[in-house]
């Protein structure tokens, strides 16, 4: 297949759905790690096409959603300071911190700007030598390489008024934490293809072996997801647990060596807190000692932040797959995309936003009744 539309072909989708139905004999629960995959599943009703008892659990792979409250509050404090230009991707501006967000800082006179690349922020630093320019570097292994490269460039060009507020997280330690949870129901994973396009697949065989869990590297189009689910249920039914790469058009086993080398030069592993989940050992990156002067936390000395998490929001349970978004009492009433209580409703990759956007507003009971009525492959594509 050459064109994107072909990855939504209803006939091919029907064939894959039929193969999944022909394969499955028992209930299974599998997690799609990435929020982009969650949106494809919910948007196309893929979960409603699966055999009864086959459950898709939505994972924590939304970078905006898992950025910890403490880092958001640090961003708010830095962005409030005079002489600072605070740069971020648009999603982060509405993420609630302890009582306010970056939009509020902007409305109160803070110089908060939306950029489309960390290099835009570096250019701003070049053009404004009398200001401190800070870029909010969040995300998984996909967004970390350009942020690393920007810091590398800043050092190489001697641009000293640029710094990075870092909140980068890594997928494999999160999979490990999910498997170690006493409430874990996940029996298999669809791994995020874009993460693997950077990092390759070498971190996964150890996990499949240790937790006896199949991991299938999967893309983001409807047929990618269905093919990933098919390969996963074949393994589960056969009692196998191996790593499979079902996204070979984008993922080489070794990943992207240039991006990995840049990451290794600029970052080092660290423990990281995930919003709603908690601390996961060695699940993140921070700037290495060589680049410490470009670390905004270090430059602005933002410590002793007291955080205040919403008592209503259950996004931690959503991110760990313990509840579906519409099982949160605030879903669609107190919490909507216009008035979000949690990052999972703010982010374009958040599970709560996906359920709201694609009208999954029913209670779980009503939802499964509707799901039975909706088992038409025509919803794919
Ligand atoms: S619906 Fe809103 S309040 Fe509930 S878990 Fe999602 S983001 Fe939090």
UniProtKB/TrEMBL annotation:
GO MF term set: 4 iron, 4 sulfur cluster binding; carbon monoxide binding; iron ion binding
GO BP terms: protein maturation
Keyword Transmembrane recorded: no
Pfam family, one: HypD
Keywords: Iron, Metal-binding
Cell division is among the record's keywords: no
Family assignment from sequence similarity: Belongs to the HypD family.
Name of the protein in question: Hydrogenase maturation protein HypD
Organism of origin: Kribbella voronezhensis
